[in-house]
Amino acid sequence: MNQRPTGLNVTKAITGFLQYKSAEGLSPVTVTGYDHDLKLWIEYQGDMDVAQVETTQILAYLNYLRTDYVPRRITGNNDKKLSPKTVYNLYISVASFFTWASREFQINNPVKGVPRTWFILSLPLYKHRKIYKTYPFKSLCT
User: Fold this and answer.
1) Which residues touch 40 (CB under 8 Å, ≥6 apart)?
2) Which pTM was predicted?
3) For residue 93, what are the CA distances in angstroms to 21, 33, 112?
4) Cβ-count burial of 90 within 10 angstroms (0-12 exposed, 13-18 middle, 19+ buried)?
5) What b/e readout covers 51-81, taking b as 16+ CB neighbours within 10 angstroms?
6) Domain 10-141: which CATH class?
7) Could you tell me which residues come within 8 angstroms of residue 35 by beta carbon, excluding any fewer than 6 positions away?
8) Which candidate, 90, 78, 108, 101, places its Cα nearest to that of 42?
9) Mean pLDDT, 10 residues at a time, over the chain (142 residues)?
10) Domain residue ranges of the chain, discontinuous segments joined by +
């Protein structure tokens, strides 16, 4: 593991994260998806010291995606909001990055303070059942 970064900005840390995911054997399409998702987060948040990111900033970003973000779709249907599943996928990308960064640089993981059920409960009921078979949230389904 590396030492705690001093002034390491998020953009440089993301480059290391993407290299790590490539070395891990993920497909180039998956790594490109991480890159796209994390660039969207930087576009919203700005490039800052990776150790200075807080849970409130992650929550604000996710709320922005759910309420104010205007997607740039190829089809031109840009007035339609992101689906809860898309917001959840963006959350997974940010969570994966900060899980890696917290191990790599011994920093606090700001995503740990984001309740995962916040996303799951915003999905339609039929998707809840599918997710609860995969994740240990069965007690929330009843």
Assistant:
1) 90
2) 0.76
3) 11, 8, 14
4) buried
5) bebeeebbbebbeebbeebeeeeeeeeeeee
6) mainly alpha
7) 14, 18
8) 90
9) 66 96 95 96 94 93 88 73 86 95 93 72 52 47 42
10) 10-141
